[in-house]
Amino acid sequence: MEDVRNQMRGEGEAEENGERGKEEPEQEGGVSPQMKRSRRGSEVEPEAKRSCSSEQDSDSSLDCDPDSDPDPAPLVPGPGFLLVVSDSETGGGVREVRRTPFFLSEYLQLSLEEAFFLVYSLGCLSVYQQQEPLSIVQLWRTFRSLRPDFISSYAVYHHFRSKGWVPKGGGGAKYGVDLMLYRKGPPFYHASYSVVIERADDAFKASPLRPFSWRSLAALSRITANVSKELMLCYIIYPADLSEAELDSPVCLRKLKVQEVIVSRWVSSRERAEQDDI
Questions:
Q1: Is the dihedral of CA 21, 22, 25, 30 positive or negative?
Q2: What is the pLDDT of residues 47-92, one digit of tens each?
Q3: Which of 196, 170, 167, 164 has its CA nearest to residue 181?
Q4: Could you tell me the fold of the domain covering 148-276?
């Protein structure tokens, strides 16, 4: 690029002085051959340096420099490229960097509770919105606007993470619950508990987040037992003196209480058989 800038600067001075001679290379469309070679080199470098081969594909857009090393060390430009070594007799073991035909990518997907826990409790994550970092209070208010029940769900998530459990969301479609509790995580064990989050006040008189009928509760308990898990109702108790202004900050988590209730299904025949064995 420095050579290109010097050449362009020299051409500008020559045009001003009217001293443009025939020794200067002929230009096509305002771009000199040297600039073309420089631009071609700048386009080739990000892709990779390929070794020259006599039987190179005719549709290849990379030029081989005769003065270059016949077998240069390939530069791997990124994860979207592969180093291919020809093992055929005609190829002669030529190394070539090609773009991989398969698009392999993996994204880290965090729930709102997981993201806020990493920001608020561990301090190992920063969340940006429109290229601006969000503070803890701003992130809290943003998540509340996205989900009205975020305070209750995060209180439960924070409670179990503090106890050493690994809570995971997404069990609503499969098991009909809000959270799944793992001892060490999904790669190691199956979930031990299926958790349903409920909101209540000091007297346990509040509109439930998920109103259950006896039929729906019995069905959920039966599904949980069939997959070898236990059903847990986790109540988030809000004090009566908690104002809306206090809920607008994560400081309100100190005033919330968590109570766990295990729901089990009683089977008369199984209970009688166990008593006979005793």
A1: positive
A2: 434 444 444 444 444 444 444 455 555 444 455 666 777 766 665 6
A3: 167
A4: Trna Endonuclease; Chain: A, domain 1 (3.40.1350)
Catalytic site residue 229?
A: yes
**What's the CA gap between 36 and 176, in Å, rounded?**
64
Q: What are phi and psi of 111, to 5 degrees?
A: -75, 170
The question of whether 36 is a catalytic residue gets the answer no
Active-site option among 158, 229, 235, 238: 229
Question: For residue range 131-179, what is the model confidence (pLDDT) as tens digits?
Answer: 889 999 999 999 999 998 999 999 999 999 999 999 998 776 778 889 9
Q: What are phi and psi of 248, to 5 degrees?
A: -85, 10
pTM over 0.85: no
Candidate list 154, 157, 175, 182, residue with the active-site label: 182
Q: Where are the domains of the chain?
A: 148-276
